[in-house]
Design brief:
The chain has 306 residues and is of the alpha/beta class. The protein contains 14 helices and 8 strands. It starts with a helix and ends in a 6-residue tail after the last helix.
Length: 306
């Protein structure tokens, strides 16, 4: 029979080890890079990609913090088989520190549970918001990359995360409705940023690599022609039964089935995204966590006094 008190002690010890590991000196002077992951509609595997891409990047030497910012269907914890005791709401209220919120995922990525805490930001006045952002600035010393799993659709909250982030990963599938809704997201982002936003398209649940490229090419051509928006192609993930089995197991497929087609594909995606860093040193030279949250606050209209 397991001892709950011992389990909590062991978990706390593992978390301290993880945070200490993530606090190692940065290998460059670049700031933390933020990547928002979003989709036009639900059910396209956005959260699954957020989790497994985070793990793949961590395997390649990046320090990653994953923020679950999907207000409607926050489910990163379910995909990882963990149950957060605290969320961003506790940080907003000043009850917990960032370090107390962070949870290790598989010993390589730290999860920052958002949930209702993201909505709680709306109640903060200017000084309180600035204090919260100061508390969050500890992430600059913990992570190289902040991956934000946002909601689906074109709601203002979702788009605000994308506009605030240094880069955006847009997930779709070959399904016509998913492609249509993904284009709707691109149109909204183009309007909000005057087509000045870094967007990469990921195609999930494809029958073949060729199908992924064909879907991406259609979307990219339409975005270029009608929105004056350049969209990069980040690759595709196959429709793989290993993904569904991993979800049932409440485990990331990269860990449960590391040799599956989906795991190999998400590794290729990480290589492609991180490989650009080697060719263009500025790609992952992010603006840091404070800049991200200040831009997010402006986008959401937070911290305003009446």
């Amino acid at each position: 029979m397991t001892d709950p008190a011992k389990d909590l002690t062991d978990q706390a010890r593992e978390l301290r080890r993880m945070v200490d590991l993530h606090r190692r000196p940065a290998r460059s002077l670049s700031g933390l890079r933020s990547l928002a992951v979003l989709s036009g509609k639900g059910g396209v595997g956005k959260s699954n990609i957020s989790v497994n891409l985070s793990l793949a990047m961590a395997e390649r030497g990046k320090r990653v913090v994953l923020l679950d910012a999907d207000l409607g269907m926050a489910n990163v914890d379910l995909l990882c088989g963990i149950s957060p005791r605290y969320t961003l709401a506790h940080l907003v209220r000043g009850e917990k520190t960032v370090e107390e919120l962070l949870l290790p995922i598989g010993g390589s990525v730290l999860l920052l549970p958002g949930g209702p805490g993201v909505q709680g930001l709306a109640d903060l006045d200017g000084p309180s918001l600035s204090l919260l952002i100061d508390r969050l600035s500890v992430l600059d010393g913990i992570a190289d990359i902040l991956i934000i799993d946002t909601g689906a659709g074109i709601h203002k909250n979702t788009l605000s995360f994308a506009v605030a982030a240094d880069s955006t990963l847009l997930v779709t599938t070959p399904e016509p409705t998913a492609i249509r809704d993904a284009y709707g997201v691109l149109k909204s982002l183009a309007i909000a940023t005057q087509s000045k936003i870094d967007v990469t398209l990921l195609v999930n649940m494809t029958a073949s690599e060729e199908e992924g490229r064909e879907v991406a090419e259609r979307v990219r051509m339409a975005a270029s022609q009608f929105l004056d928006l350049t969209v990069a192609y980040g690759g595709s993930l196959p429709d793989d039964s290993a993904v569904r089995r991993a979800v049932q197991m409440r485990a990331p497929f990269l860990q449960a089935f590391p040799d599956s087609r989906a795991s190999l594909a998400v590794g290729d995606m990480a290589d492609a995204l991180l490989g650009i860093e080697e060719r263009e040193k500025t790609l992952f030279s992010g603006r840091g966590i404070k800049s991200f949250f200040f831009r997010l606050a402006r986008g959401l209209g937070l911290g305003k006094t009446s």
